[in-house]
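Entry, Tuesday afternoon. Goal for today is a structural model of the target with 2-acetamido-2-deoxy-beta-D-glucopyranose bound, before we commit to ordering more compound. Inputs were pasted exactly as handed over by J.K., no edits. I checked the ligand SMILES twice against the vendor sheet because last time a stereocentre got dropped in transcription.
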Amino acid sequence: MHFSTMKNAGLVAMAALAIPGVNACLSEYQANALATNFGKLVSAYSQKLANQTLAPGFIDYSESVNSLMDGGGSAPVALLGETFSSRAAFESASASQPSVPFAVENVWFNCDTITVRWKSAQSPQPVIGISVFHTVYKWANKPVPFLIDEIWGEFDSASWLENLGILVPASKKQKREIAFEA
Ligand SMILES: *[C@@H]1O[C@H](CO)[C@@H](O)[C@H](O)[C@H]1NC(C)=O
């Protein structure tokens, strides 16, 4: 009697573990694959990959991107507002952007969250950023059964604005003023 109760309890526990999605946690391979796919969306965007990587209700928060879209300052994009409020919004913005270099430098992950430290080898200044991806389990998604539903990412937007020629670094401004006074 005791034995069979214990055996049943064991079977119930095993059945719970076997249900897809219950207690599903990211593996190292899956975390690295999502980090790589996100990099590809920045460096070689495709809608197919966006659909395989991002959840339809995807939300992206980044004061750095908002600041970049404003070219500095705080308008027209509110600095602390959502950067992209859906996958469709991300897709239409990415499709119209030139691709930029993107290399994954470090990946750390836990059950459902991935932290990526990345480098965009731009010129003249490199840009380092850190992005945190929250993921949701989606058993039918191939090849990785997880989708990113939230991103919080920040990076060196001052260097990015300098690379775009929008921001003049203080050191260069000073030289200009000295040249002007002489
Ligand atoms: C991506 O998903 C959208 C729906 O969210 C769909 O309209 C579109 O055709 C898909 N694109 C590709 C290339 O799979």
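The two ends are 99 Å apart (CA to CA).
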